Amino acid sequence: MTAPAPAVRVGGRPPGAAAPPRRRRRHLGVYLLLVPALVPIAVGLGYPLVRQLVLSFQEYGLRQQFGQPARWVGLANYAELLGDPYVWAVIGRSVAFCLVNAAVTMVLGVALAVLMARVGAAARMALQVSMLLAWGTPVLASLTVWQWLFDSQYGVVNWLLADVLGATDMRFHSWIVEPLSFYFVATVIVVWMSVPFVVFSVYAGLLQVPTETMEAAQLDGASARQRFWGITVPMIRPVLSVVLLLQIIWDLKVFTQIYVLQRAGAPTRDTNLLGTLIYSYAREFSMAGALATVVLVVTLALTGFYVRRMLKEDEL
Amino acid sequence: MSTLTTPPPTPAVPTRTRAAAVRRRRPVRRRRADGRGGPLTRWLLGTLAVAIALLWVFPIYWMISSAFLPLNRLRTPDPTFFPVDGTLANFRRVLADPSFASAFRTSIAVTAIVLVASLVFAFLAALAVSRFRFRGRKSFILTVLVVQMIPAEGLFIAQYGMLDDWGLVNRVAGLAIVYVAAILPFTIWMLRGFVAGVPIELEEAAMVDGLSRTGAFFRITFPLLAPGLVASGVYGFLQSWNEYTLALVVMTDPGRRTLPLWLQGLVEANRATDWGVVMAGAALIAVPVIIFFLAVQSRMTAGLVAGAVKG
Amino acid sequence: MARLDPGRDTDVRTLRIAAAGAAAALALSACSSDATGEEPTTGDGGTDTAEITLWLNGTDTPDELRDYLVETFEAEHPGSTLTIEEQDWSGLVPRLQTALTSPDQTPDVVEVGNTQSPTFTYAGAFADITDMYDELGGDDLLPGFVEAGSADGALYAAPYYSGARAVFYNKDMFQAAGVEVPTTLEEFTEVATTLQANPPAGVENFSGFWLPGQDWYNGAAWIYAHGGELATKDGDAWQGALSSPESLAGLEQVQTLFQSATNAPVDADSNEPWVPFNNGEAAMFSAPTWARWSIDLPQCNAGVDPDDTSDEAKELLAQQQACNEEHTGIFPLPGVDGGVAPVFAGGSNIAVAAMSQHPELARDLLRIIFGEEYQTMLASKGLIPGNTEYASAMGDDVYSQAAIAAALDAKLTPPAELWADVEGQRILEDFFQEIAGGADPKDAAARADQLITDTLS
């Protein structure tokens, strides 16, 4: 060692993790760095989003798609949506589903990432490959399998509960016919598919934590718990913030898993979330557009506080 | 996990020493990141990790196991856990399908373009927003965040119209453009987090030691970003590899379909779906994902080390 | 130009009552569109040469028929080519929503599912082919499908083929329970209940008749059989009709089946009903007649690898199929007073895209499709052809007979412009599931009617 181990400020802001960018010089070069990203976003995403917003103020369905003039209706689509108590019920459900799923996913994901960083190479590889398979298998196949696993008649879950664990009344249990039970199954599947992303991202973040810092802290007598909360968490906070934010955004829009489970035989109206509700307006583009704006507002309401805090603390 | 011989750079340490420390970082031997706990703890944690891995992979195991079974054994009162007397017929049928190879080539082409373009573009943008202050910086970051909050289910109509105007329907380039646009906001956000996670002092210290800013960046910061690039890259790879909705409307020509469209075609290849064949197809689609990951995963753990070795 | 004779009487006996109105309106509008001077047509196919594209969905149209279309079209139009692109049913709607709006990308002729047909027809996605009505088959065209492909009195999408549902049954189980093929709907319930009460030894969760909770495709037959409708048109407005006394009579009978004749899960739909049948857990199921190829009874299974193409394997597979069909019977669902119940029809329509750059060639392709030769080929492949005159070519085996009997009386979903939204919101799936779960049919029907009415307006 060439330098004395510095005092570790447990609980303080870690070095560099949230350090404000230092270079305040204004030069055009910076904008050049943004151009390659801005152009495709503006063209491939920005323009369609603006178009979707415009549609939400029109009466625009399949007829208009085939050339009939679109009529401006102002806020009528929004009024119709927000005047429908059912839409509010779906918003409420979606928010609850989103918060539960984001929380479960984050807790499990961070725990598994920490575990991954602590085990040997073989166990780590096993964990990584299984996560990757869960994440990377075509959803058409993986969701079909989940549907089979929870099938009332032939599902492995019922078979295990009844024939192995002896809960014989579960032999032909219908999992998705009651909304709460439906959301439980949906949560299992959503978490199963989202945790791998959190694990990989957080694990990547953990690898950025200099090992020396940890060792120094250890020499200073900090316990494992202190080191985790005092050093690791603050250092990977930018990554954690991003991942949590993305989870909330994605879980509020969750579509595929809900859609597939509904098709498997769940009561649709009782289990709709915002994603599937938008889809059911597939042919009334203006209503789907208006609902998309509503989703944006709900997401902002959910995350606004958090985003503002991030802005203030200059994590953005 | 590697342990380094020098203490971490902190503002408390003189700059020159820190730079020296950075350059002298060097892997010594592999050991636990956590010094606490004996072999038992380690064994327990390893066992726990493998158990979780098995639990997590079970649905995929079920998929692969189904791929070895004939249709009449897929859904029966007593499940088949080990297809020991299984058949390779499903895999043979998938591989004999000429459209598999063509879909495979299309998917590879789209994914390669999307991966390279989105990582490079996003990396530059992430660098700009996390290493420089400029007018419009926060609006840019917020915009990139907000576009991700809007459900995109209804966008395909406008995206199709745009590609149609440019003659890019049924073209790999057309699909790649909309994919890059869809993935960029996410990638920028992720990479921004990872760039922010690298202490800028490391870079500055190296500059004090005489490296140019570019040099310092590529020698010090870039290697530390490798895990983040891998994580974001895996995301981008999977998104464009498995995307269905946009590919559905953009690639209508049967000769230009991507793998997910081809897989959906398998579902409908017979009036009654032969799920064993579909599962075999899905398993084959997942193979390149694993290969891609194995190829890049060493970068994840090597990230820390690389900076030291090159220094 | 083919023209309907405005003075001609419509044969109400062969057309279903509702379709008669549509046909009469077609006759009128055919006149008026002629008077307003549509573009001139040349009976022998026009002069331009081009590449045209036909979209066919799924694998319902066998390769042999596709080859015939390409060869015939290209022989009749030297220099022009026909490309057939196969589309998946599951992704068809978004593809049609986009491709049909693009002059460059649009297919010239498209097949569209019969329940999707009204949506695109009303939207203006297809070209008006009212003037071809007689030429394509006139009143011999499947009436419900003509209705589904018509809007405001004009024909846009012609019937391509139809498939109807029939009941498959396990002959051995019928014998063991001492029951015969039922001849009325009432008897059907009794037979199903008796079967349910006498499960084969060792079978848990046995179903006399496999009827999953969300299976409205099959359940609708009971509503139709009692004279009810899913929705009716009152003036200009469509309204849910599940609460009508006729519909309720059918629904009560369905609920009896759910309660005493099936153990099928409440949370399942009409997919793959042959799975429990093959597992020996159901004595009957109702499905399109092509389900015969999915019957695979354990006592008949020869264990042939599906990719084994040797003569020996083919021989074994033929024996297996013969064995399956020996143990399995089929009958059309009986009506309330005997005869055949009007079941829910599957099938598709075929149309010329409005954006087609070669409408004359596209129309010529339609002429080939509706020619005697092609229609006969469709029938010989087990599909009810759009022109019912050629249905007799289907053959006289029990499956074809059951299929023809069921199809000639089959009914479609209401031809409302927004019907696809009712399906998109899965209102009927939810409704039948409530019935299966024991809800009072009257209350549930009133709620579902309200949703249907709201959606269709």
Describe this structure in words.
The complex is a heterotrimer of chains A (316), B (311) and C (457). Chain A is mainly alpha-helical and 316 residues long. Chain A has one domain (81-315): MetI-like fold, CATH 1.10.3720.10. Chain A is built from 15 helices and 2 strands. In chain B, 70% of the residues lie in helices and 0% in strands. Chain B contains 12 helices and no strands. Chain B has helices at 15-24, 39-67, 89-96, 98-131, 137-146, 156-165, 172-197, 200-208, 213-242, 245-250, 259-267, 275-310. The longest helix of chain B has 36 residues, at 275-310. Chain B is globular. The two termini of chain B are 19 Å apart. The interface between A and C is large, with 32 and 40 residues.
Helix content of chain B: 55-70%
Q: Give the mean pLDDT of chain B.
A: 81
Instruction: Report the CATH C-level class of chain A.
Output: Mainly Alpha
CATH topology of chain A: MetI-like fold
Structural class of chain A: mainly alpha
- State the helical fraction of chain A: over 70%
Q: Rg of chain A, please? A: 24 Å
Largest interface: A-B, 127 and 136 residues
Alpha-carbon distance between the two ends of chain A:
35 Å
Number of helices, counting only DSSP H or I runs of 4 residues or more of chain A? 15
Oligomer: heterotrimer
Report the CATH topology name of the domain at 89-302 in chain B: MetI-like fold
Distance N to C terminus of chain B: 19 Å
**Counting H and I runs of at least 4 residues, what is the number of helices of chain B?**
12
Tell me about the biggest sheet of chain A?
2 strands, antiparallel
The computed structural class of chain B is mainly alpha
The Rg value of chain B, from CA coordinates, equals 24 Å
Can you tell me the residue ranges of chain B where pLDDT is under 50 for at least 5 consecutive residues?
1-35, 302-311
Q: CATH superfamily assignment of chain A? A: MetI-like
Low-confidence stretches of chain A: 1-22
CATH class of the domain at 89-302 in chain B: Mainly Alpha
